[in-house]
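Go through this chain for my students:
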Amino acid sequence: TMKLLVVLSALVAFSECLHKIPLIKGKTARENLQEKGLWEQYRKQHPYNPMAKFYQTGIESMTNDADLSYYGVISIGNPPQSFSVIFDTGSSNLWVPSVYCSSEACNNHNKFNPGQSSTFQWGDQTLSIQYGTGSMTGRLASDNVEVGGITVPNQVFGISETEAPFMAQMAADGILGLAFQSIASDNVVPVFDNMVKQGLVSQSLFSVYLSGNSEQGSEVAFGGIDSSHYTGQITWIPLTSATYWQIQMDSVTINGQAVACTGGCQAIIDTGTSQIVGPTNDINNMNSWVGATANQNGEATVNCQNIQGMPEVTFTLNGQAFTIPASAYVSQSSYGCSTGFGQGGSQQLWILGDVFIRQFYVIFDTENQTVGLAQSV
């Protein structure tokens, strides 16, 4: 019985080490704008440029993504001030709006007030992050940052002084980057790296679960794997570059035919992009294979009645097949149905965003520089 007790106590200890942050599936910028009748005009002014964030030299960048809907709550300072943030595996900095910012995007979001925190310290650097449609500028500072019950002391983060107009349409106040330090603006140590360095998590990995339809249930778990959210085996895939969470993709196939990424390509697993994005030619080919036609915004629309008969799409990653049914890659709204395959321009890089992550539970392992994927439940 002694042995049994040891095993049980080990299990109890392990379950306590999982720090879960519930993610809220909120209204997207697109939904907000559609309700106001402003969407068409807005998309013309702010074209979708999902690749902008991956092709800045030295400046980390993000994009006008009108369909992002998952965010969680963190707090900064002592006493704590709360902010909703996008947990973004495609960037590495944390920033929130501040009382020093008068942009529209700051005025309709929570603003951090340094004067109300006893643990706040100014840094001596400015911060500038390019977006697909503008930018965020501000200053670096440090303070206690609390995420899912873990408090990281002296975390360096950005407090905004200006924000691009598009940010006003976002549900979240700011962004918490979960990629590697090598791509952080000003080489700031990311939040998760500090958790690991300071021994605040039991394992150097975090896991993401995005629930399909419901507003509830999605989560990021720091320091462990939540086995209730997947079924079957975890497939471990080595990173090809520890910058973004970048891996080798072998091909994209439909009905056994290679339709994109022929001869292989690189893909980034990115919670901060809502769609699956690839080179424009490849995406157009995929969309025509599944029977979609482009509308004037370049979005691939389908007849909602046809979803049942549309083919599965298989992404082969490092020799393993990951298959997505039409019910997962087509999004339905009161405005009709469209595919979640987005055009990324001429760049040969792929982004496996939320459309992919909803199907597969993802484990991001910083120590072994691997990504684990398992069928989501």
User: Anything to note?
Assistant: Residues 105 and 281 are 34 Å apart (CA to CA). The first strand starts at residue 19 and ends at 22. Confidence is low (pLDDT under 50) at residues 10-15, 57-62. Residues 20-200 form a domain with the Cathepsin D, subunit A; domain 1 fold (CATH 2.40.70.10).
